[in-house]
Amino acid sequence: MKQNTTITAKIKLYATKEQKALIQETINAYTVACNYISEIVFESKQLIQPKLHAITYPTLRAEYNMKSQMALSVMRTVIARYRSAKSNKHQWSLINFNRGELDLVWNRDYSLTKDGFFSLITHTSGRIKIPYEAKGVEKYFTDEWSFGTCKVVVKSGALYLYIPITKEIDKYDITACNDVIGVDLGINFTAVSYGSNGKTFFFKGRHIKDKRAQFIKTRKELQRRGTASSRRRLREIGQRETRWMNDVNHVTSKALVANCKDKALIVLEDLHGVRNATEKVCKQNRYISVSWAFFDLRQKIEYKAELAGKKAITVDPKYTSQSCPKCGNTDRYNRDKRNHTFKCKGCGYTSNDDRIGAMNLWNKGIAFVSKETIEINFDSTGHVNVPTM
Question: pTM of the predicted model, to two decimals?
């Protein structure tokens, strides 16, 4: 059986000053049109596109000078935002588009030319061709991948395309699973993996923690100054830290997935709600604990595993750091958080506390594989329920 997997490619465009001005003009016009549609949707609560089309299309064409396809894109953008808010159970309220919106439909509003340019539609000047940075993304420009509706984003004066790209892959077959890997995510160790061969791999995180502490120190000093230049510097540091952390998670997830056998099942903790738990730590360590990019790392592990013919699932993390993987004894005093050690009060088994977490996740993975030998069903988040060993 086949299934589709989708990732988002971030592609930098090398636009001229004149081209950037045209794109910015298009973004501004698109944003204004989005706010017009948003007011109509808010008042009418109409989220069916054909009906909204009948109400707004003539005005978009005549008064907002929108081309046909761009007018349709505006409607889809606004409808999607309201439906997302509704699905997240937010109260019905007017959605404002302030940051600049521009969605382009593949092969209608944007395309890739044979001579190595992206061709983008503009509001007033037709199409323009812009070169792009191909390094790192050239592997996606094959027949195996299909492009979706992209977002045009301007960051620090640079122009980017965020393109969802989809590839058809073989659906994971649990009966072909040849290894289970338990992976504990943390701060002192970004990840600790434990496999069926008994080997443990530690991905160090102490240097990451130290560098983030440097970012925090610099940020506090700039906040105390309160000048225009310090605020500009704060934004730059925030962007730099985000790029750096994103790269750290890419490197970690790539190494972790590559270290697993083909058809391996990778078992992760479901860290949904981890923010509420980490906010209970002491104030001195709260920022690092709360802002750690666990979910981003999990997402990268999941899609890299899928592309490599493996599978990552999440399970309930309850007691994974307190239970002994050897005898099953569960006691909060088994773990010494300060010294990052684990010593079972029952059988005396001793090890690193993060390694214990990985071993318990491995146990849950083994229990899951032994139960699900014919058919495996995942929910929309990839989460499965496995009883504690």
Answer: 0.78
